[in-house]
Amino acid sequence: MLIAKLLGWEEGSITEYRECYEQFGGNFSTHPDAVQTQNDMLNLGTRYFIRTNGRGDKQGGICVWDGNMLANDYDSDRLTQSLALPVAKDELILPISRSSHIILPFKSKIISSKHSSNIVNSTFSINAKRRICVAKDIGKLSVKTRQSRKREYKKFIESGGKVHRVEDFTTSELVEIYSTLFFKRRSKKMKNKSELINFLECLKPHIFGCILFIYDSPVAFQLIMKAESLEIISYDYINIGLDTSYSKLSLGTLITWLNLNDASRECQRKEKEMRFSFGRPTAEYKNRWCTLEFVGRIITL
């Protein structure tokens, strides 16, 4: 904490941290609602630090857990894994001014490439080649790809398919749909349904996307968490539930296409940058949708 103070960071409040987030942006993993709700459920000892310039203007804020760990950093999984909440630990976009040049007093292995020029003690070359999958601009996908998705959508509708929005359901209904499809895809039951309901109930406006139905039965649901700030909207694709008995309808591909289109249209309408993350490069299918970006490490004394 002494080093933090020497580097210009002073302990602040959730209100000040929220002001930084609204001004400078971030992703769901650093959103004030997300970190505060996790703290309420897990008692993580949350503290906030704010940096200002010599005139008192805020340059950024950070949330710290357990004394010296950035909230939702790579290593913080040991603090939250008992509840398996849908918060990605693949990339941290911190609410820090892009025009400032600061030293971050806490370690990290997943700092976003967006901070490559404004966090002085970050490195993107010495970090075990850690990367994140970020969705491509769908407007730049090939004509062949677009035509294929249109054929898949037409086939889905002709098979009794319907598209519903997550806003049409209560939190309990969403979790029930997700857990049912989770089991159908993996033959494994979710163990944290009640905790997931509690978490998502607090963060309902952050749930994004559509749910695919065949007649009256849900068949595909991507759990996506959204966070919006002044210039950016970020979307974290957490996981997917699928009814595998409909494999001929390419439901995973179709729902990904629909959600990406909805996200792209939302960002265009609001004139904001879209950052749609598929997490770490853990599966071959992500190559179809994404480009790879390195994440950085923070070097501290």
Quick summary:
By secondary structure, the protein is of the alpha+beta class. Helix content is 32%, strand content 27%. It has helices at 2-6, 14-24, 32-42, 77-80, 143-158, 171-186, 193-202, 251-270, 286-289, and strands at residues 9-12, 47-52, 58-65, 69-70, 108-111, 122-123, 131-135, 161-165, 207-208, 210-214, 217-228, 232-242, 273-279, 290-294, 296-298.
What report would you give on this structure?
- The protein has helices spanning 2-6, 14-24, 32-42, 77-80, 143-158, 171-186, 193-202, 251-270, 286-289; strands at residues 9-12, 47-52, 58-65, 69-70, 108-111, 122-123, 131-135, 161-165, 207-208, 210-214, 217-228, 232-242, 273-279, 290-294, 296-298.
- It is α+β, with helices and mostly antiparallel strands.
- It folds into 2 domains: 2-105, no CATH class; 134-293, 3-Layer(aba) Sandwich (Aminopeptidase).
- Strands 7, 8, 9, 10, 11, 12, 13 and 14 form an 8-stranded mixed beta sheet that branches. It has a 4-stranded antiparallel beta sheet with strand order 1-2-3-4. It has a 3-stranded antiparallel beta sheet with strand order 5-15-6, with no helix packed on it.
- Helix 5 packs across helix 8 and helix 6 packs across helix 7.
What's the CATH H-level superfamily name of the largest domain? Gcn5-related N-acetyltransferase (GNAT)
**Using DSSP, what is the number of strands?**
15
Give the low-pLDDT segments: none
Radius of gyration, in angstroms, nearest whole number: 20 Å
